Amino acid sequence: MGKKEKQSKMDVGEAQEQGTFHLKPSTGEPSLNSEEWPLLLKNFDKMNVRTNHYTPLPEGCSPLKREIRNYISSGYFNLDKPANPSSHEVSGCLIVCIDRTTRLAKSQQGAGKEYICIFKLHNPVESEKKIKQALEKLTGALFQRPPLISAVKRQVKCESGTYVRTICVHLGLILGVGGQMQELRRNRSGITDEHDELVTLHDVLDAQYVLDHHKASFRVHSFKDETYMRKIVRPLEALLVQHKRIIVKDSSVNAICYGAKILLPGVLRYDDGIEVGQEIVIVSTKGEAICIAIAQMTTSTMASTDHGVVAKSKRVIMERDVYGRKWGLGPVASKKKQMIKDGLLDKFGKPNANTPANWKVVDYSATKVEATVEESANEDVSSPKAKKKKKKSKKESTSSSSDSE
């Protein structure tokens, strides 16, 4: 106790005598530990950096800080399904997507499922070794035709369309004693398993009741108690944590929501190991999932070029106009908008009776039509039939000229 009291009562003079306290110059970069960052921003400091310069916009927010209505509409929960609804035999993990999250349902269907099955054999087996040998025969690609002494529990990983009940019947036939499935539980669906915040239907009902009827107070204000609902509902970004990521600037978010391609000048950071044709997720600087996209460049290509299409969007997740529009802000576009407002152009931006004579507008649709007509004409001339017709017309013209002479 005496030593501790002396250390706690040490005055400033004694502390200065024991050592020097100042910041020393160093060339080392400050370390930022982002392992505890949530969802799609986890370990973002380990991503490849293209640039750190961008203009942050006030729109958008972190997935965990969304207003409760948007939080629920862009969330899902991992339901511990009872044995009866929709599938009478299976219980366990079932991903229930809410509203906007249904756009990600197909991405989880291809991620595989895992089941635990309990089945019974009609007669005893000589040894456990025979059961293991029979299970090895049933491992791999199978052809299936869809359908009481020792009980066995086994764990099965399979793709969609697999009948675990049929596997149990086949196992009984291989062992020569017959068998049937008694219980089936799904312990993994997609990237979620039964240890990943599994909830029951009673939890969902209670969370809705608490949200509607209970109120929490902070200082003077009182508001709805959202803690229970936020605990069982998870943001949709949690379903995409295993995808490769590309973080883009805030100014390009809304253009992507309207279907624009992801171009390299709008990229801030990107993961290692991205391959052409791979399914990736496009992320905002606040960690929001913008869309699922198909990569058009590898990681090495992004690092060695300064322009081009990085990815094409496959499924847009974010709603339009969450972020502001950042296209059509140039001098010509601004002047065109003002002329439409003043009635000097029609509502489509094309000239009308009031348009000034000095206004020049490029009709890109007309130029495209002219280009296609020219191309078709060139193709007709270059074809062999066109050449023969041209030769015949030349011969006819020469013969007519000789007759006239």
From TrEMBL:
<feature type="region of interest" description="Disordered">
    <location>
        <begin position="1"/>
        <end position="32"/>
    </location>
</feature>
<feature type="domain" description="Dyskerin-like">
    <location>
        <begin position="33"/>
        <end position="91"/>
    </location>
</feature>
<feature type="region of interest" description="Disordered">
    <location>
        <begin position="372"/>
        <end position="405"/>
    </location>
</feature>
<dbReference type="GO" id="GO:0009982">
    <property type="term" value="F:pseudouridine synthase activity"/>
</dbReference>
<dbReference type="InterPro" id="IPR036974">
    <property type="entry name" value="PUA_sf"/>
</dbReference>
<dbReference type="InterPro" id="IPR012960">
    <property type="entry name" value="Dyskerin-like"/>
</dbReference>
<dbReference type="GO" id="GO:0031120">
    <property type="term" value="P:snRNA pseudouridine synthesis"/>
</dbReference>
<dbReference type="GO" id="GO:1990481">
    <property type="term" value="P:mRNA pseudouridine synthesis"/>
</dbReference>
<dbReference type="Pfam" id="PF08068">
    <property type="entry name" value="DKCLD"/>
</dbReference>
<feature type="compositionally biased region" description="Basic and acidic residues">
    <location>
        <begin position="1"/>
        <end position="12"/>
    </location>
</feature>
<dbReference type="Pfam" id="PF01472">
    <property type="entry name" value="PUA"/>
</dbReference>
<protein>
    <submittedName>
        <fullName>PUA domain-containing protein</fullName>
    </submittedName>
</protein>
<dbReference type="InterPro" id="IPR004802">
    <property type="entry name" value="tRNA_PsdUridine_synth_B_fam"/>
</dbReference>
<dbReference type="GO" id="GO:0031429">
    <property type="term" value="C:box H/ACA snoRNP complex"/>
</dbReference>
<dbReference type="GO" id="GO:0000495">
    <property type="term" value="P:box H/ACA sno(s)RNA 3'-end processing"/>
</dbReference>
<dbReference type="InterPro" id="IPR004521">
    <property type="entry name" value="Uncharacterised_CHP00451"/>
</dbReference>
<dbReference type="GO" id="GO:0003723">
    <property type="term" value="F:RNA binding"/>
</dbReference>
<dbReference type="GO" id="GO:0031118">
    <property type="term" value="P:rRNA pseudouridine synthesis"/>
</dbReference>
<keyword id="KW-0413">Isomerase</keyword>
<dbReference type="InterPro" id="IPR020103">
    <property type="entry name" value="PsdUridine_synth_cat_dom_sf"/>
</dbReference>
<feature type="domain" description="PUA">
    <location>
        <begin position="244"/>
        <end position="318"/>
    </location>
</feature>
<dbReference type="InterPro" id="IPR032819">
    <property type="entry name" value="TruB_C"/>
</dbReference>
<dbReference type="InterPro" id="IPR002478">
    <property type="entry name" value="PUA"/>
</dbReference>
<dbReference type="Pfam" id="PF16198">
    <property type="entry name" value="TruB_C_2"/>
</dbReference>
<feature type="compositionally biased region" description="Basic residues">
    <location>
        <begin position="385"/>
        <end position="394"/>
    </location>
</feature>
<dbReference type="InterPro" id="IPR015947">
    <property type="entry name" value="PUA-like_sf"/>
</dbReference>
